[in-house]
Amino acid sequence: MRVFLTGSTGFIGSKIVPELITNGHQVLGLTRSDAGATRLAAMGAETHRGDIEDLESLRSGAAACDGVIHTAFDHNFENFIENCQKDRRAIEALGSALAGSDRPLVITSATAMGTAKPGEPATEDFFNPDSPNPRVASELAGRALSERGVNVSVLRLSQIHDRRKQGLVTDVIELARKKGVSAYVSDGANAWSAAHLSDTARLFRLALERREAGARYHATAEAAIPFREIAEAIGATLGVPVQSIPADAAAEHFGWLAAFASKDMSAFSTRTQVRLDWHPRGAGLLTDIRNLEHVG
Predict the structure, then answer these.
(1) Checking CA distances to 98, which of 152, 200, 261, 294 falls within 20 to 30 Å?
(2) Angle at Cα 206 formed by Cα 291 and Cα 146, nearest 5°?
(3) 296 pLDDT exceeds 70?
(4) What is the pLDDT of residues 138-148, one digit of tens each?
């Protein structure tokens, strides 16, 4: 299969490229820079110039391929609402190029979209279209395409990690480095889910190959890691004290991260593992935190 991949030089996308090629696929990677084109060529992929705001580049890239994996996302969380709308427009553009065919489109979302009640682990088969979380825009765009007959599936991300980067945990680590203390909110019992980067790349490939319209999958290897344990691992790695922060002081300490630091983001992936025969085998989140590259 010739696959159009957005985010092809990003943290996840650059791992998906060799995963696809090793398993017999060809990759057309979206990039806006010469450096990105050089990286793609070194990995054995073709280059398609454009970006997620250039909707025509998205449509033409998708039209030239047998399937699409969309991982590109603007991760500036200070503009989170607008960035989610930007993702919605990108998904609509990609899907419009696939309309009238059964070519698969795998889009990316977050496991938070599978949470039925606060504090309960997210599940693959739940989706609340009225969720106040701005990320709902991505899945609503996918659902609208599905209603038009486009073969769309959704891959929801937990904290995706290796020893270089760990999703939102990377920002928590940088905050602890800056403030000289690794903090958690109240008792830190709220849990986050996680999956290793290599397992996640494999899951994207499996989802694409499955071609199951309307399916939702969770990139979750560890369902519920208490945030206190994450803070403790960060403290041990950086050599800084670990401290509980009262809930009413969380915003002052964590800034924009406060919306996540006290939130339960646990998730199950039981159905994903069964449907795709996906069995995570990468290192755990706490292990990767303890073995961070470039600690100093």
Answers:
(1) 200
(2) 120
(3) no
(4) 999 999 999 99
